[in-house]
From TrEMBL:
Residues 118-156 form the F-box domain. InterPro entries: F-box_dom, FBXL15_LRR, Leu-rich_rpt, Leu-rich_rpt_Cys-con_subtyp, LRR_dom_sf. This is F-box/LRR-repeat protein 16. Gene3D superfamilies: Ribonuclease Inhibitor. The lineage of its organism: Eukaryota, Metazoa, Ecdysozoa, Arthropoda, Hexapoda. It comes from Papilio xuthus. CDD domains: F-box_FBXL16.
Length: 499
């Protein structure tokens, strides 16, 4: 009964209201006792229900705009209305800033193999694993590798350009020009000319004019140039510091007197048949700044070494005399008196030098760091005693083919605390007992016992005590077996063992 009655009243109220709204006189003409409060309630309900959907949307849009642009009113707290609650549901609380989506960090794509082998950062590190000679081949792989290698002289340190003049005579001028340009690009400062004639020298000067201020070192090997050709090349190369003449049999001592310039600090004369005492005199007189002098001449005598004066004593530090067969202890006297500041001395193949000559060296050249007495058959254990007592700073000693060296002499050497490199190749009297002496040398890093016939596997196995050893040469040793090499490799893992 209640539901129909409420429904009937409700329906009549809505109808009556619509009618009253249609005629204003009917609504305003109600008497004081005729139910005015009911009419008021009906009008409020009708007004609330008459809020259109369009209005709600418009008010919500305005509120959303204020929220997004940060223009929402800030004041005393009040309860949110219907539209505000809709805005909060759609875009969050009013105090919360709108969320900005974060960009994902893009990871670099991995290089494909064709891109990887052309990447400059990779190649800069890759080329470090090769020496300058091996990089010559790498530069032929592709133009990218060539251009990168040619871009910096640091890839070619220590490399020299070798030109065989017999082949160059058939090469075109354009081809040679490209080669000479590549020398400049790579910063190569040294040139070797093989089998050159005077005409080849003139052609080199004509096609490579930039060499005048670029080439620092030149080597002439097996050349038939005359004094005139030598004079032409030395006049052309204005920044030449190093000169080597090997097997140039047309060069005379007069040519050396005419051509040598004071700029030269390193000179090598090897197997030139006309080089004798007067040539050494020219070197001593014309090269006051000479630092390194290497001479191999069969006809040089003790008198040649008398040409050196105190003029060279301050500069000359390296002297190598190879196979000077006529040199005796008197020549050693001239050396130690004129060149007291030598740090490197080689008397290799000077077969007339004896223990007395070595004693002069040990007593008068205290700055020596390297001494080579190989192929000196008159040197005995006594010479090694002089060396061990006086040359306290010696770091390298070469005694190859000194056939009179025994275990006693090696015992003297073993007391030298600064010795780092020792060469005893083909010392035919060296035995296992001498090797035992060597095992106490804690500074020794390089040792060669190649060709020593009396050494056994038992004696050589004791070398594992040399933990600091970096290179060991045992070629042509009858006592070295495969089992010995395996044993040495196991106990000396950081040592290069040459079998």
């Amino acid at each position: 009964m209640a539901r129909p009655m409420w429904g009937g009243k409700s329906g009549s109220a809505v109808a009556g209201c619509e009618q009253g709204a249609g005629g204003a006189g009917g609504a305003s003409g109600a008497g004081p006792g005729g139910g005015r409060p009911a009419d008021t309630i009906r009008r409020v309900r009708v007004k609330m229900s008459s809020v259109s959907a369009q209005g709600v949307v418009e008010r919500a849009s305005a509120e959303l705009s204020r929220r997004i642009t940060g223009l929402g009113l800030r004041g005393r707290k009040r309860s949110p209305g219907v539209v505000e609650r809709m805005a909060s549901a759609l875009c969050g609380p009013a105090h919360a800033a709108p969320r900005v989506p974060r960009r994902k960090r893009l990871e670099p794509r991995p290089l494909l193999w064709p891109q990887f082998i052309l990447d400059e950062k990779f190649l800069e590190k890759f080329f470090l694993y090769f020496n300058a000679n091996e990089r010559r081949t790498l530069a032929q792989v592709c133009t990218k590798w060539r251009d990168l290698l040619y871009s910096s002289p640091r890839w070619w340190n220590g490399l020299v350009a070798v030109l065989d003049c017999r082949e160059l005579r058939s090469a075109s001028g354009c081809c040679m020009q490209r080669f000479y340009n590549s020398i400049i690009r790579r910063g190569i400062r040294g040139v070797v000319l093989v089998s050159a004639t005077d005409d080849d020298i003139n052609e080199f000067i004509r096609q490579f004019p930039l060499s005048a201020h670029h080439i620092h070192a030149i080597s002439l090997k097996g050349c038939t140039i005359t004094d005139r050709g030598l004079e032409a090349i030395l006049d052309h190369l204005q920044v030449l510091f190093e000169l080597e003449l090997t097997g140039c049999n047309e060069i005379t001592e007069a040519g050396l007197w005419a051509c040598l310039t004071p700029r030269i600090v390193s000179l090598t004369l090897t197997d030139c048949i006309n080089v004798a005492d007067e040539a050494v005199g020219a070197v001593a007189q014309l090269l006051p700044s000479l630092y390194e002098f290497s001479l191999q001449a069969y006809h040089v005598t003790d008198a040649a070494l008398g040409y050196f004066s105190p003029k060279q004593s301050a500069s000359l530090s390296v002297l190598r005399l190879h196979s000077c067969w006529e040199l005796t202890n008197h020549g050693i006297v001239n050396i130690v008196h004129s060149l007291p500041n030598l740090t490197v001395l080689s008397l290799s193949g000077c077969s007339k030098v004896t223990d007395e000559g070595v004693e002069l060296v040990a007593e008068n050249l205290p700055r020596l760091r390297s001494l080579d007495l190989s192929w000196c058959p008159r040197v005995t254990d006594n010479a090694l005693e002089y060396i061990a007592c006086d040359l306290n700073h010696l770091e390298e000693l070469t005694l190859d083919r000194c056939v009179h060296i025994t275990d006693i002499g090696v015992g003297y050497i073993s007391t030298m605390q600064s010795l780092a490199a020792l060469f005893l190749r083909w010392c035919s009297q060296l035995r296992d007992f001498g090797v035992q002496h060597l095992c106490g040398m804690r500074s020794l890093q390089l040792l060669s016992l190649a060709g020593c016939p009396l050494l056994t596997s038992g004696g050589l196995s004791s070398l594992i005590q040399l933990r600091q050893l970096r290179e060991l040469e045992l070629t042509n040793c009858p006592g070295a077996s495969p089992e010995l090499f395996d044993y040495l490799h196991e106990h000396l893992p950081r040592c290069l063992i040459i079998e």
